[in-house]
## 1
Amino acid sequence: MSTAVFFHAHPDDEALLTAGTMAMLADEGHRVVLVVATAGERGLAELPHGDELGRTRMEELHSSASLLGCARVVQLGYGDSGLAIDGGVADDRGDDAFIDADIEEAAQRLADLLKEETADLVTIYDPSGGYGHPDHVQVYRVGSRAAEIAGTPIVLEATVNRDPLLKGVRLAARFYPSIDVRSFEVAYSAADTITHRVNVRKYARAKRAAMAAHASQASGGTGDRTLGAMLKIPPLLYRYVFGTEWYVQRGLPRGTRLKHPFGSP
């Protein structure tokens, strides 16, 4: 049995990016540990920002983790940095915001957990943080450094295949000109840089249930959000659309195509 630590910025990130892989590893008998940097207390939701939303989102996280078979859930205790209207760092963030945390201090905190768990694998995000959220970028910085300190042998950057995503966005932009296509041109990872394509269709029901556990994030702001829209996709189509999860492992030859987080071809 191996131990895999999944490091995320906020509750619900695990459901969107890595839930199928988590459920698969747990089903195979591996120990799965879920770590979040923040409670997500500044996320868009019907509830106002603050402690109440943070508590709600952590309760949702524990429900999601249980559905996925996680053995342990850890919250590092940093504040949600929020997101400015222009997609940058929010000026009104708190003093404990994750984006302002000292990299070495935060990395050591995560490294201590990796050592405690004798982790064989840790997931982080790609350098751009996927779509650029400041806390996601910080997960990359802190997580990659923590793996160095702890000597964790496998570091996987959870990402999305940019190529089909960009094609879809360009098509949608023909009908909705307000869509910022340029922002997607640098989001996530190009297909030829992706080293792991994990087939998680068998675990689509668990992934969907994990998404549904984060009810506070299905709506908020101007209406349905990304997670809410995903949950409206019919089950058979959902299984197809969300049946693959993608990762990048640095140092492997370009063109590597692995099918399992632990490296099976």
Note: The chain is about 40% helix and 15% strand.
## 2
Amino acid sequence: MCQVYLWNYPLYIRSVPTENELQFHYMLHTSLDVVDEKISAMGKALVDQRELYLGLLYPTEDYKVYGYVTNSKVKFVMVVDSSNTALRDNEIRSMFRKLHSSYTDVMCNPFYTPGDRIQSRAFDSMVTAMMIQVC
């Protein structure tokens, strides 16, 4: 599951598998509170270190929720299966950096209107490839 938020408004939602989408949406909206808490707790340290990766926000019985926030407060949230032990923190961080880079490319597109849902084929194919790598 991958979801991109801009000021707590979903711009891009992609989930695999699709049968428990409501559960994923609940987890993602709950994780936004944790992201806000981590940002406020880190405060100035977040800006000084330029560390955008928030790490594991919280684990559930079946999933792990990770977070990332940009300097402009765009929030990226990713939910992965807890049984996937092959994913390490560095790989998750790398995936968020790729996602951030691709998001920047979407924002730099002169035909994209900020605040609209992301419908870029390049962004979607990058997310799809990333999800195939994880699953």
Note: The chain has a mean pLDDT of 84.
## 3
Amino acid sequence: MNMMDMFGKMKEVQSRMKDAQETLRTVTDTGESGAGMVRVTVNGLKNVLSVEIDVDLMKPDDREMLQDLIVAATNIAMQNVEVKAREHLRKATEGLLPNIPGLNLDGLMS
């Protein structure tokens, strides 16, 4: 592969990465805690889209436990969507660059 081809590929990679990053809002995942009593859905941009709480947890005495369950469900959803977002970006740039040992494009996602 000559240098001009490589630069052309890099521009294509940048363009594809930009497009893929813009579509990360459509990549979603839901984390659950408390045996599904708390559900948090996030997108690939790491925005919380919704929080669902079982009505049985809506008691003043359970406030601290509910807060812990929301945090746990949010963290699970964030971890899961991170994996999905990486896969989404990998697919968007698949076949554009040769397999170069040590080349890590993970920083392009942030």
Note: The helical segments are 3-22, 63-93.
